[in-house]
Amino acid sequence: MKTTDSKRRHATAGQSPAFTLIELLVVIAIIAILAGMLLPSLASAKLAGQRMSCIDNLKQLGFSHTMYGQDNNGFFPPRNATNRWPQMLYPYNKNVAILLCPTDAIHKPQSAGDSTNNVADNAPRTYMINGYNDYFFETMDASAFASYMAGTWPQGLRDSKIQFQSDTVIFGEKLPTSPQYYMDLLEIAAGAGNDYTELNQFTHVNGSDYCYADNSARIMRPYTTMGPSISQWCILAAARTNPQYVYHQ
Would you kindly state where each structural domain of the chain is located, as residue ranges? Predict the structure, then answer.
């Protein structure tokens, strides 16, 4: 009898202790709780990273815009009906990825490019450029302004005409369903009104990103680009308080 008990004790001592079902369920529950606590933080970190990448894209576009002006006697890209601004700025960055906000990528944002030779114009695009409507409308006659809006005017805006460098929007985020290249405050010829309806107010959780004439980039809270703040798209000081541009009245 003693021999049998000794063998049993020896066999039990040589075995690894096993988890009971209850212990296993407790471990799984703890892991689930920890995962639930970590996932929101990871998601927030991912969104923050995407927004920072978007800001970087806009800054690169801003620098490309500035360099284009430096290479063209101070004139920014003209409004062109065939080669739009993405294609004109492409030689300065050689990267169509900067046209697309990472947050917006899942929506496959539209672009209106119709030539397969223009790789940048045809690329998925989150951003649209300032149409500078207030300046050209106020400084041109009706025929010249119609030519500008049709994309046949040979010159763009001169860099020296921007009075408020840190407070004038050059690039903003559009709705993914919009093919717009230009943010127009005064599409009189088309009768379409202001393109602020094409702006995406919620590209990011807390707003959308914008690039300014001084090549800085920052976020705007939802709907702050409406009403009086739409004036940041205006070039002329007088236009910034003119309901014709700010409210299209």
Answer: 20-246
